[in-house]
Specification:
The complex is a heterotrimer of chains A (about 180), B (about 375) and C (about 250).
Chain A lengths: L1 E9 L4 H14 L3 E6 L9 E9 L11 E6 L2 H7 L3 E9 L14 E4 L2 H7 L6 H12 L5 H11 L8 H14 L1 E2 L2
Parallel strand pairs in A: 1-4, 4-5, 5-6
Antiparallel strand pairs in A: 1-3, 2-3, 6-7
Chain B lengths: L4 E5 H11 L4 E4 L7 H9 L8 E4 L3 H13 L4 E5 L1 H16 L4 E7 L15 H5 L10 E3 L4 H18 L2 E7 H5 L1 E5 L9 H7 L16 E2 L6 H21 L3 E4 L6 E4 L2 H16 L4 E6 L1 E3 L3 H9 L4 E6 L5 H9 L5 E5 L8 H13 L2
Parallel strand pairs in B: 2-3, 2-4, 4-5, 5-7, 6-7, 11-12, 11-14, 14-15
Antiparallel strand pairs in B: 1-8, 6-13, 10-12
Chain C lengths: L33 H15 L5 E5 L14 E4 L5 H11 L4 E7 H7 L1 H10 L4 E6 L2 E2 L5 E2 L18 H4 L5 H6 L4 E8 L3 H20 L3 E7 L3 H4 L3 H15 L3 E4 L1
Parallel strand pairs in C: 1-2, 1-3, 3-4, 4-8, 7-8
Antiparallel strand pairs in C: 5-6, 7-9
Helix pairs in contact in C: 1-7, 3-4
The chains are: A alpha/beta (about 180), B alpha/beta (about 375), C alpha/beta (about 250).
Chain lengths: ~180, ~375, ~250
């Protein structure tokens, strides 16, 4: 098992923390993991991305140019990373704010209206866990039990009261993700 | 007992390791991409637990001189910075080496020259391995390539620093510093007591002049050129001992290799993938990863050349620094080429593979 | 002829060299203030009984060799960095009495940042600042404290503010900072002044031991070689020129 994933979007969308939950979930399942963020000024309002690798073997390169899966949450990320999905790989995106939809035909494409769902529920904070749920539906690389453990591990204790809300969001995300092609 | 596995950033783990190895003090100044080191230390407040001092200095210049002061007294002291900040500290390296003081300096390298970029780079190789400031001296330099090694090398670096009374550098980069991986943390070791410091460093440390000994003076000043020369010869003898005893490296699929990639730190991680790609394509390629950059694994590389390796590619995140040491080691027995990206650009395994084909294998 | 009787007996002694001063012959020029201040430092450490607790930091400049003259542990700092080195020592050895001994070039030019910030953090150290308005060690170049009109190797026609900028009073500056507990400006050109300077150094060392913050003792001094004067003339010149610009007395604490 080896999953090479990029999550990219605006800073503040929870890009890095989604990756962190996933990486921790991998740890809970005894996998090797690496989590490498873009860092610096781009985190301050600009675009942010994180490369997460989860594998049952020792991870060699933590930096990648090709990905099994890309979760793209704004137009800049779509423009930059659509071409970097491996043939046969997966691209997941939120249609909110996307003006040019993905065009590739050699990959599987899914949409998840997480921004809309979060707004409908009046809770923007679940945006990234909705996305995570959608991803896990498509790529069930770790068990839900370990994801919940990873979620707890990735949060400071003072934020544990938000665990049920986020677990719920992961389940909802699994329901609302749609296959485009 | 099963050790606790944590998912941590390289920078955070440096802070944890510093506390756990019983360091007495950290002095630093913020700079991307390593600010999490001091942030983590301030968050953990080790002065409340182990008694370790953590202080944000007014500059890197001040920080390295605070290190010099604390090291003068036999304390285990470290600092961390990134390339431009390390340049500011370099005056201090020369004084520390000249006064034979042990300490640990961490460079989480970014792209240069000048203010450069904040992205990962390995363009401080020359600075880290050739001394990096005025005078005949070297830093002992360790290059971690994983978050676990960031942890382990803090312990190793202090060991070496006190064994040889010389500053030790951990030469990391933005990838290793910013990346999270699983890490097993060592158990907390106690800081040395005053009595232990006095006993262990009784020949030189400033512990206060007592009736039973002469005053100790930490200095690098000499007026007599012949005395300075004698001292320099002593330093060089020390470095030769380091060269003899402390070389560390790791190899990957080199036993039957026709072609050798030489890479350190994060670049070595990337090149491991290149080796696998090349093997799949039917080329016998191996990797040697120098773990100590000074002392450089000259002998190991020379032996590979002597055994008939047909070519070496030094793959670095710079425009050709370590390649000079590889050339010296190979000494004309086989072609040695360099491939690199710089300024914060990081090469992919494919890029290195293509370079290997065009520069070495198909030449 | 009457026989000479040697009167140097223990019971007749009114003064002796501090046991903390080494027997090394000082390299300072005759008439230099350094020797006097060294002697005072030695006497104060001896009188306070803190030899085993004292760590000195010597600078770059004439007093770089201060470590040759006192029986205490010394760390010799890079140019200007004495206050940072002292910070490193004191923070990791809070029970030690740590002091720096610096000249004007070291403390007020190249080391201004380290000086100001150690003062501002209120490091529990003592700073002894020898201000003779010139670089002695390197051969009489202009210092940050060189007076307007004063001739030096790098201001051969006299210090002209349009070219060289102005002299400044760093003791006054550090007295404004919350971290300093005691700032004073003294001299050693008369016996009375020597006694006052000794008292100031003692107070500074006591403050450092008691953890009251940073004590800053400026000693307005002579450099008769750099000034190209006899020691006597240098003392007179100092009184007439330096002291009016750098007035003596306590500034804070």
């Amino acid at each position: 098992m080896k999953e090479e994933l990029i999550i990219a979007g605006f800073g503040g969308q929870g890009v890095l923390s989604t990756g962190k939950i996933l990486a921790y979930s991998g740890v809970m399942q005894d996998y090797e993991v690496s989590w490498l963020p873009s860092y610096g000024p781009e985190m301050r309002g600009g675009t942010a991305n994180v490369t997460v690798i989860i594998s049952d073997k020792r991870i060699s390169s933590p930096t990648l140019q090709k990905f099994d899966t890309a979760i793209l949450l704004n137009q800049q990320s779509m423009d930059k990373f659509e071409s970097q999905v491996k043939p046969g790989g997966v691209l997941i995106y939120d249609t909110n704010g996307i003006t040019r939809h993905p065009e590739r035909t050699d990959i599987k494409i899914y949409t998840i209206d997480a921004a809309e769902e979060a707004a409908k529920r009046g809770n923007s904070r679940i945006f990234n866990t909705l996305i995570l749920g959608g991803y896990l539906k498509v790529r069930p690389i770790v068990t839900l039990e370990n994801v919940f453990k990873g979620l707890k591990k990735s949060l400071p204790e003072r934020a544990w009261k938000s665990l049920p809300m986020n677990e719920e969001a992961i389940r909802i995300g699994m329901d609302i993700i749609k296959e485009v092609r | 007992m099963k050790k606790e596995v944590r998912l941590m950033k390289g920078n955070e783990v440096l802070a944890e390791a510093a506390i756990r190895c019983g360091a007495d003090a950290y002095f630093g100044y913020p700079i991307t991409p390593q600010s999490e080191v001091m942030e983590t230390l301030m968050e953990l407040q080790p002065w409340e637990t182990t008694g370790m001092v953590v202080l944000q200095a007014e500059s890197e210049v001040a920080a390295i001189n605070m290190v010099y002061g604390a090291a003068s007294t036999g304390k285990r002291v470290l600092t961390s910075s990134s390339s431009p900040g390390v340049s500011l500290m370099s005056e201090g390296f020369s004084y520390l080496a000249g006064a034979e003081l042990p300490c640990v300096v961490i460079n989480v390298t970014r792209g240069g020259p000048g203010l450069g970029t904040i992205q990962p780079s390995q363009s401080d190789y020359f600075q880290a391995t050739k001394g990096g400031a005025h005078g005949d001296f070297h830093l002992i330099t360790l290059a971690p390539s994983s978050v676990q090694e960031m942890h382990d090398f803090v312990f190793d670096a202090f060991e070496l620093a006190f064994k040889y009374r010389n500053p030790v550098m951990i030469l990391s980069d933005g990838v290793i510093g910013q990346m999270m991986e699983k890490v097993v943390l060592a158990d907390q070791r106690p800081r040395r007591t005053e009595a232990e410091v006095i006993a262990a460093e009784k020949d030189w440390a400033l512990t206060g002049k007592t009736a039973d000994r002469e005053e100790h003076v930490i200095t690098s000043l000499e007026l007599d050129p012949y005395a300075q020369e004698r001292f320099n010869e002593k330093l060089i003898a020390k470095y030769n001992k380091v060269r003899e005893n402390e070389v560390r490296y790791e190899t990957y699929k080199t036993e039957d290799a026709d072609y050798i990639i030489v890479a350190f730190g994060s670049a070595a991680r990337i090149c491991t993938m290149t080796v696998d790609m090349a093997r799949e394509a039917g080329y016998k390629v191996g990797l040697i990863r120098p773990i100590t950059l000074f002392p450089f694994p000259t002998k190991a590389i020379a032996e590979m050349a002597a055994k008939g390796a047909k070519g070496f590619l030094s793959a670095e995140l710079n425009h050709g620094q370590m390649v000079e040491d590889v050339r010296l080691a190979v000494n004309g027995k086989a072609p040695v080429e360099h491939y690199g990206r710089s300024g914060g650009a990081v090469f992919s395994p494919d890029e290195v593979y293509n370079a290997l084909l065009t520069k070495i294998i198909k030449k | 002829m009457a026989e000479l009787e040697v009167q140097i007996k223990e019971e007749n002694l009114v003064y002796r060299k501090s046991p903390l001063l080494t027997d090394k012959i000082m390299h300072y020029c005759p008439g230099c203030s350094h020797g006097t201040v060294h002697k005072l430092v030695a006497e104060v450490i001896d009188e306070l009984g803190i030899q085993e607790k004292t760590i000195g930091v010597s600078p770059v400049g004439c007093s770089v060799f201060a470590y040759n003259y006192l029986h205490i542990d010394w760390s010799q700092a890079a140019h200007g960095r004495a206050c940072a080195v002292a910070t490193g020592i004191k923070r990791t050895n809070p029970d030690k009495m740590v002091f720096t001994y610096q000249g004007d070039g070291d403390l007020a030019a190249i080391g201004t940042a380290e000086t100001i910030h150690a003062c501002n953090r209120g490091e529990n150290i003592a700073v002894i600042f020898i201000n003779n308005a010139i670089y002695g060690m390197t051969g009489g170049q202009m210092a940050p404290t060189t007076l307007i009109g004063m001739k030096t190797a790098t201001s051969p026609y006299g210090r002209d503010p349009k070219i060289h900028g102005f002299p400044y009073k760093i003791a006054d500056i550090v007295s404004q900072l919350s971290g300093t507990c005691y700032v004073t400006r003294q001299s050693v050109h008369t016996p009375a002044a020597v006694r006052k300077t000794k008292a100031a150094i003692k107070k500074a060392f006591e403050n450092a031991m008691a953890g009251k913050g940073l004590s800053f003792v400026e000693v307005v001094s002579t450099c008769n070689s750099g000034w190209k004067m006899s020691p006597v003339d240098a003392n007179k010149w100092m009184e007439e020129n330096l002291v009016p610009f750098y007035p003596l007395g306590d500034i804070k604490g």
